[in-house]
Amino acid sequence: MIAIVAVERNWGIGKDGDLLVRLPKDLAFFKESTMGNITVMGRRTAESLPGNRPLPGREAIVLTRKTGYAFGDAKVVRSAEELLSVVSGSEKDVYVCGGGQIYEMLLPYCDRCLVTRIDADIASDTSFPNLDAMEEFEVESKGEPVSENGFTYRLFVYRRK
Ligand SMILES: NC(=O)c1ccc[n+]([C@@H]2O[C@H](COP(=O)([O-])OP(=O)(O)OC[C@H]3O[C@@H](n4cnc5c(N)ncnc54)[C@H](OP(=O)(O)O)[C@@H]3O)[C@@H](O)[C@H]2O)c1
Question: Per CATH, is 2-78+93-144 categorized as 3.40.430.10?
């Protein structure tokens, strides 16, 4: 699995159920990366999507503990184990798309993390694990800085050692 996330300087990812900033080029990168593949997200992140429906062109899987839950045409799973059995054998890439609970739960299954690092301190109430503090991950590549909407950010690809 591959985690894909945008973080501020302290690895914050969201506040009050929403993203921290709107970065259209980064959203385009997210779209390009995930298109045609499998996206996995928690119920809260799924319900924050535009139009409150799964992202088009991608196979959507939503994690919830609720019974009888439906989210458009997404597959709904109730545990990491069920998720793993649903995606096993798929030839598509599996992108872990958040939010905080789901990143934390599925990071042990991710061998790559595509991290857009925003060079700003932005107040957050949800975060991604600090990969720089984890022995298991190393930086594989760093993209060029991009400036948009008053923010500068760059893509870091982390790889499991
Ligand atoms: N910066 C980024 O790249 C990025 C990306 C995505 C999201 N975000 C942000 O992250 C925030 C949302 O994150 P969050 O942590 O509050 O919520 P979340 O991870 O999106 O979803 C949490 C929900 O997932 C379900 N869940 C969690 N663990 C589960 C398990 N073991 N088995 C089955 N279901 C499980 C539960 O759903 P039920 O309550 O239905 O049981 C839980 O309430 C928002 O602010 C969002 O904007 C940021």
Answer: yes
